[in-house]
Amino acid sequence: FMYLLGRFTGDGWIRQPSSDKKSGYDAYALGLAFNSNDIDGITRFEKYFSNLGLNVCNYKHKKKSLNQLLIHNKSLVNLFRSFFPDYNNTSNTKHLPYFFRELSDEKLTHLINGIIDSDGYKKEKSKCGNILNRLSIDSSSYRLICELKEALLFLKTKSSVSTRAAFMRGKYKCKQSYKLRFSKLDFKNQIGEGYFSKITNIKEVKE
């Protein structure tokens, strides 16, 4: 379930009925986006929601390599709304579930893995051929990036953040975004070499 919350944080959205006719929303729905090549991910969540007795609609984009899963269920939408109270249906209002600071290391790892598999990028080697084993997550939500950096610290994984200014791509304006980078090995082992130290013996200091 934590992995699902991570996938939603990265590439999910919520629809609710609106009095605004322009929105076109007339029902409650939870959506998840997948690259069409991610057959395992698509199948995994179709089966997951079906096992819960929920009807899953799989829409394939006509031009893009994109599949969207929609689950029409009011209770599910309300549940996710309670987990992400400040999400306002825009990418720059994405954030981690409000209880992420209370999660165990194992559950927090599953949550972050879900985000990596949706909005992340794995770089194994540099242009020079050097092994990097670096992970990165991009988002236009500064809050999400800061919360992820904090979550990684809980897992003893150091990270860095860079900013990309807004720019025009043809007629479309790309928002300012942020890139979080961290070591794949640090995240896997949850001990940042040279950054964290383990205290094994504490001796009383006498005045």
Fraction of residues in β-strands: 25-35%
Q: Main sheet, how many strands, which sense, barrel?
A: 4 strands, antiparallel
Write down how many β-strands occur, each being a DSSP E stretch of 2 or more residues. Answer: 10
Give the helices and strands as they follow along the chain. HEEHEEHHEEHEEEEH
Instruction: Note the overall shape.
Output: globular
Strand order of the largest sheet: 1-2-4-3
In short:
The protein is of the alpha+beta class and 207 residues long. It contains 6 helices and 10 strands. It has a 4-stranded antiparallel sheet with strand order 1-2-4-3. Strands 5-6-10-7 form a 4-stranded antiparallel sheet. The chain has a two-stranded antiparallel ribbon with strand order 8-9.
Question: How would you describe this protein?
Answer:
A hairpin with a 5-residue loop joins strand 3 (56-60) and strand 4. The protein starts with a helix and ends in an 18-residue tail after the last helix. The chain has 207 residues and is of the alpha+beta class. It has helices spanning 2-11, 39-51, 74-83, 105-119, 142-154, 184-189, and strands spanning 12-15, 29-35, 56-60, 66-71, 120-125, 131-139, 159-164, 167-169, 172-174, 177-183. Helix 1 runs parallel beside helix 4. The longest helix is centred in the middle third of the chain and has 15 residues, at 105-119.
Main attributes of the structure:
alpha+beta; four-stranded antiparallel β-sheet; 32% helix
Describe the secondary-structure layout.
Elements: H1 2-11, E1 12-15, E2 29-35, H2 39-51, E3 56-60, E4 66-71, H3 74-83, H4 105-119, E5 120-125, E6 131-139, H5 142-154, E7 159-164, E8 167-169, E9 172-174, E10 177-183, H6 184-189
Antiparallel strand pairs: 1-2, 2-4, 3-4, 5-6, 6-10, 7-10, 8-9
Helix pairs in contact: 1-4
